[in-house]
Design goal:
This protein has one domain. The protein is mainly alpha-helical. α2 packs antiparallel against α3. The chain is built from 3 helices and no strands. 6% of the residues are buried. The radius of gyration is 20 Å and the shape is rod-shaped.
Length: 68
């Protein structure tokens, strides 16, 4: 479950694996809700990591004439 909440491709693969094991109608609304919730959370966590890496961690700027 931890991997499903961090990696969207694992959430999609797990849903299709559950569907092949239990059948498409066997997952029901609970399985569909679990898939959509884990997919939404994993995409948000993925974007949060990208945002923190891009915006939250300031990087030292390089200027070509700074040493002169």
């Amino acid at each position: 479950m931890k991997d499903e909440l961090v990696k969207p491709w694992v959430a999609i693969a797990s849903y299709f694996k559950r569907c092949t094991l239990f059948g498409w109608s066997g997952t029901g609304l609970v399985g569909l809700f679990r898939f959509l919730a884990s997919l939404a959370i994993s995409v948000c966590v993925l974007l949060l990591g990208v945002g923190v890496n891009t915006l939250g961690i300031p990087k030292e700027r390089w200027y070509p004439n700074a040493g002169l």
